[in-house]
Design a protein that fits this description.
alpha/beta; 7-stranded mixed β-sheet; 3-stranded antiparallel β-sheet; 37% helix; 20% strand
């Protein structure tokens, strides 16, 4: 089907199938926000948004079945890059690059599109390899890009460091409850609990740390936005890590606020009302 249909027609054929699957899998299920969140994220607790996110997740899984074909002319028009010059400048300067991101609903397509456009990229999963099922471990290795594995796990930090030192890109999420944590100002009255690993790794390897967001524009059209790199003076061993964390969030918060329905409910566990704010008092 993928070879014989246009992208639009292929999408149109599959969408009703996954829409039916979405409705079936959400019968009797109500999304639950188990903690307070800023007003603009309240809609994550609605059934409508939960269903839309699940539908997009199913459709995006299809793209993962043939990531090597995304580099063809038929598919490439479906992804636009903003701020790509930051990656290009890092490559020109010979700097390692770490892409810092958090859980947007369409995060999984980030690596697919970057590899399709010629950027060697892998993801640091931040969990133990043994936590993956045997089927998923095999899938990790069935990559159409045989020069490198697409995923590094906890315990493979040296391999990940060697990977970025060779001039490749490493994707790391910072909204994970793994390793050391820090609190960073988010929006008025709120702070964001962030894993420090992404900052520490960039600091240790003198890597360019670039915030990155994936925006789903519908119909298998995406926009990948690269923010301003964290200033290198924020990535010294002596600098407070929260300074770098604040810079990353400042680059990404406008995307969160413009597309709140694409934020994952997963990241809401990182949000905390400040003790002295009106939010916490209410």
């Amino acid at each position: 089907m993928e070879r014989g249909l246009s992208v639009q027609n292929f999408y149109s054929v599959l969408k009703p199938v996954f829409f039916a699957r979405t409705r079936l899998n959400t019968i009797g299920r109500k999304p639950k926000l188990d903690r307070p969140v800023p007003d603009f994220l309240q809609l994550l607790g609605t059934t409508q948004v939960a269903r839309r996110q699940r539908l997009n997740m199913y459709l995006n899984h299809v793209i993962g079945c043939f990531p090597d074909r995304l580099g063809g002319a038929k598919w490439l028009s479906g992804c636009k890059f903003e701020g790509l010059e930051h990656l290009q400048l890092a490559r020109q300067n010979g700097h390692p690059v770490i892409l810092a991101t958090c859980h947007f609903v369409s995060l999984e397509v980030l690596g697919f599109w970057l590899r399709a456009t010629g950027w060697p990229v892998a993801t640091f999963a931040g969990r133990k390899f043994e936590d993956r099922t045997r089927t998923k471990r095999l899938k990790d290795r069935l990559s159409p890009f045989p020069l490198f594995l697409p995923v590094f796990y906890e315990g493979q930090l040296r391999e990940a460091a060697e990977f970025i030192a060779a001039g490749n890109l490493l994707i790391m999420t910072f909204d994970v409850p793994i390793g050391k944590q820090m609190r960073v100002p988010f929006v008025d009255g709120w702070s964001f609990q962030m894993a420090t690993g992404v900052v520490r790794l960039a600091s240790h390897h003198q890597a360019d740390l670039i915030p990155c967001s994936v925006i789903d524009e519908g119909g298998w059209h995406f926009r990948i936005k690269f923010g301003q790199p964290v200033p290198r003076e924020y990535l010294t061993e002596e600098t407070d890590h929260t300074v770098a964390g604040k810079h990353m969030l400042q680059e990404m918060i406008p995307v969160f606020q413009a597309f709140p329905e694409q934020c994952s409910i997963h990241m809401t566990r990182c949000l905390h009302p400040d003790p002295l704010s009106s939010t916490s008092k209410s």
